[in-house]
């Protein structure tokens, strides 16, 4: 399971790198590549896989299953309520991490 999680994370980074490059965010792509320790030119997204397509298919699946589009974003400053062991709580962690507002100073 840990290996699968690591592979999913790597796959997400590869897709994001391709998205950034395709949309002109070359400097951001270079920083992400450096921070993720992926060697340049070693891996790229498959020809038929694009981040926009994944979002579209997720949205279509969610609409088909639940009758509404998924909520992918929330307002900055909102926190995510989680259910841990039967009790609702507020997620904490790094800024930008699930449940932590972007721009938050909490570490």
Automatic annotation (TrEMBL):
Superkingdom of this protein's organism: Eukaryota
Pfam families: LisH
Region of interest: Disordered: 83-107
UniProt xrefs under InterPro entries: LisH
Name of the molecule in the record: LisH domain-containing protein
């Amino acid at each position: 399971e840990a290996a699968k999680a690591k592979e999913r994370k790597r796959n997400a980074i590869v897709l994001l790198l391709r998205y950034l490059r395709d949309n002109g965010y070359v400097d951001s792509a270079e920083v992400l590549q450096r921070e993720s320790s992926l060697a340049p030119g070693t891996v790229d997204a498959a020809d038929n896989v694009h981040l926009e397509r994944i979002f579209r298919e997720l949205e279509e699946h969610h609409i088909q299953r639940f009758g509404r589009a998924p909520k992918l974003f929330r307002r900055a400053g909102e926190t995510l309520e989680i259910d841990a062991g039967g009790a609702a709580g507020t997620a904490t962690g790094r800024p930008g991490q699930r449940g932590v507002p972007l721009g938050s100073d909490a570490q």
